[in-house]
Design a protein that fits this description.
This is TraB domain containing. By secondary structure, this protein is α/β, with parallel strands linked by helices. Helices cover 57% and strands 9% of the residues. A 5-stranded mixed sheet has the order 1-2-7-3-4, with helices on both faces. A hairpin with a 5-residue loop joins strand 1 and strand 2. Helix 3 runs parallel beside helix 7 and helix 8 packs antiparallel against helix 12.
């Protein structure tokens, strides 16, 4: 539609059309953008600019910060702190997300266990409980800034949208592997009994450190290895993805004989405020993400610990759901993972 308004149909090549739209975009892009205080500007060795918007995942102000930043800088790429396992939240409306976040049921548990394994799946559900607690307290669904980023990026000519976070199954598996048996029990206990009230003022006060990540930091502060896998390693991954997105933008050529030309790109990154210091710290260092993408095979002691934790978790789950209804208990007992635990217990008993 824009092309039909600017030039007669058939009289403009694709390259010319690209140049005209790019020129319009450049004119709209502010040379000295007026940016929110939550934005950190980084520059690559090739001259590309990356504007990292530090957000609180439950904040209306963060949504406005993201919109303003994208409108001011007219980016070539927008990168958000999401992975392919959480991308569905971009296209769901606020009402549906609010309902989904509050409903942590058996079906979601089974899906998490099937996708990530028993221990990682249970950990994921416990972390979802933290998010659901905040959702219930505030009446606000998480990830609003990511949805705003998705909407605004679609309005910018030639703007790509990238998922910049490490796949969540990798994060949970590495987190579980980093904990001892008692650390797993202690962390699970803290997550299960989270109930402190949270106000919207509390969220806005946490603009200097994302609320969800701050709550997590308070709970995992005594577990350095857990902090490393959930926060520090993801800082590295996010930094790597932002730098990949900030490669120079190659301009189209009218013919193969025409020399290649490229210009520095502009990127907007939308991440939780707690990740910004780590991204700044890692910005100029050599990064090897292969090291943080692998999951080491479990040792014999960890297998024993994992089995005990599985049995304990399922025992607690059965007791908890028994209070809801016997039908739920029968469903849990029918789960293949539960049957496996019971079978192993039966095998161990004669040896004693």
């Amino acid at each position: 539609k824009v092309g039909q308004t600017l030039w007669p149909k058939g009289n403009c090549s694709d390259v010319d059309a690209f140049k005209i739209l790019l020129e319009m975009k450049m004119k709209k892009r502010q040379k000295q953008p007026s940016l929110p205080g939550t934005v950190t500007e980084l520059v690559t060795e090739e001259g590309s600019k990356v504007y990292v918007v530090g957000t609180a995942h439950f904040s209306d102000d963060s949504k406005r910060d993201v919109v303003k930043t994208i409108q001011e800088v007219q980016p070539d790429v927008v990168v958000v702190e999401l992975c392919q396992y959480r991308v569905s939240m971009l296209k769901m409306d606020e009402k549906t997300l609010l309902k989904e976040a509050k409903e942590i049921n058996l079906e979601k548990l089974q899906q998490a266990v099937k996708q990530n394994g028993v221990m990682s799946g249970l950990m994921q559900m416990l972390l979802l409980k933290v998010s659901a607690h905040i959702t219930e307290q505030l009446g606000m669904a998480p990830g609003g800034e990511f949805r705003e980023a998705f909407k605004e990026a679609s309005k910018v000519p030639f703007c790509k949208f990238h998922l910049g976070d490490r796949p969540i199954p990798v994060t949970f598996k590495r987190a579980i592997a980093a904990l001892s048996f008692w650390q797993k029990v202690k962390l699970a206990w803290g997550l299960c009994f989270l109930s402190d009230p949270i106000s919207k003022d509390d969220v806005e006060k946490c603009k200097q450190k994302d609320l969800l990540e701050q709550m997590m930091a308070e709970m995992i502060g005594e577990f350095p290895d857990l902090h490393r896998t959930i926060v520090s390693e993801r800082d590295i991954y996010l930094t790597y993805m932002l730098r990949q997105a900030a490669k120079r933008l190659e301009l189209p050529r009218a013919s193969e004989a025409e020399p290649r030309k490229s210009i520095p790109s502009v990127v907007v990154g939308v991440v939780g405020m707690g990740h910004v210091p780590g991204i700044e710290k890692n910005w100029t260092t050599d990064l090897n993400i292969q090291e943080i993408m692998s999951v080491a095979p479990p040792s014999i002691s960890s297998k024993v610990s994992r089995f005990v934790v599985k049995a304990a978790f399922f025992g607690l789950m059965c007791y908890g759901f028994y209070r809801v209804g016997k039908r739920t208990v029968s469903v849990i007992l029918s789960m293949s993972a539960t049957q496996s635990c019971l079978q192993r217990l039966a095998e161990i008993r004669p040896q004693k």
